[in-house]
Write a structure and sequence with these properties.
alpha/beta, 13 helices, 36% helix, 22% strand, T4SS_GSP_E_ATPase, ATP hydrolysis activity
Length: 431
Amino acid sequence: MIDHSLVKRFRQEVGDRLAHQRRLDQANGLPAMTGEDERQFARALISQVLEEHARSEIGLGRTPPTVEEEEALAAGIHAALFGVGRLQPLLDDPEVENIDINGCDKVFVSYADGQELMHDPVAESDDELIELIQILAAYSGLSSRPFDTANPQLDLRLPDGSRLSAVMDVTVRPAVSIRRARLGKVFMSDLVGNGTISPDVGRFLSAAVAARKNLMIAGSTNAGKTTLLRGLANEIPPSERLITVERALELGLDQFPELHPNVIAFEQRLPNSEGQGEISMAELVRRSLRMNPSRVIVGEVLGDEIVTMLNAMTQGNDGSLSTIHANSSMEVFNRIATYALQAGERLPIDATHMLIAGAIDFVIFIEKRNDYHRGGTLRRYVSSIREVNGCDGRVLSSEVFAPGPDGGAVPHAPVSCLDELMAHGYTPGGW
């Protein structure tokens, strides 16, 4: 067992010494430490603080910590400084899927095998939990994000790529949900291997990306949309310049320069306490078009940025990728129309349908469900791919891949752009 009160105290001491060194470096005109240099220096400070603690304990006639206890304390202090405190062991567990926190001592963990179990408290109090989230908000993403009574909602990307969403004051106790990024660098072969897509669907989607088709990935919350988007993005040649636009940085394509050396990652900026300085998703999509992109990737469409994005797709920026919440591949068109009605342009439904028909080539629907035939294992898989064929008062589409006997997508109808896909290596397997 680790003494969390000691971890909290030593974290403060190390943090103060680290801040003092930063001020000294600045006063002496020295360059700021890199992130890795700061972590290495912090490790030296942690060792120093723990050694001082051991001497103090001996001086008071008490038994100093054992080697194992010191190692646990050092790991806890480092996690509190640069990680997520007591949450770190959960984020280090490759089998953890999601973490839901309803107050500091009500922690529910979902695992890859479908189990959901209660976990130990992640903080001593709700105030300490809020303080942890505030620290993360200050150092994650491109800009500090407030989390307080005036700003009770927060979305951010954790250092390991997981997505955190937190609320306070609008709930009885602070609530946090963390969706793990278990597959950071993911390829189509990985998705075929874990059953998300069949080999035929994998070849089809790879060819669609190579042919610069505009793809919209749809599904429910936690269905695997972002993971599929990463897999598709990794089919894009490294010679292309990518611009990603997200509410909170999550895709992380810029973290793999060997795959994508030329990436600009945009993150929405929230207004400050005076309501100034906001930069919306729609503005960032517009800005991205002026940055010479080969492709624009919008992490998740949730509002009026949809109109700007669809316009971009119809103005020569082919090969765009995005995700959207929907209950079926067919429902995507109504969802987009609803978002378009909320936009400043107030596009009527007919105009929106025309815009969709000119912009989107394929809608890919991914779903999740417990497979009770396999012991209740949680399963994610692409069940439908719909091709957009045109507009006649409504969006015309055909389901070229439909759910098969096991739910996974199988060939269902001919593709109108088959010659184009075949030129990029696709060979139809089931028509």
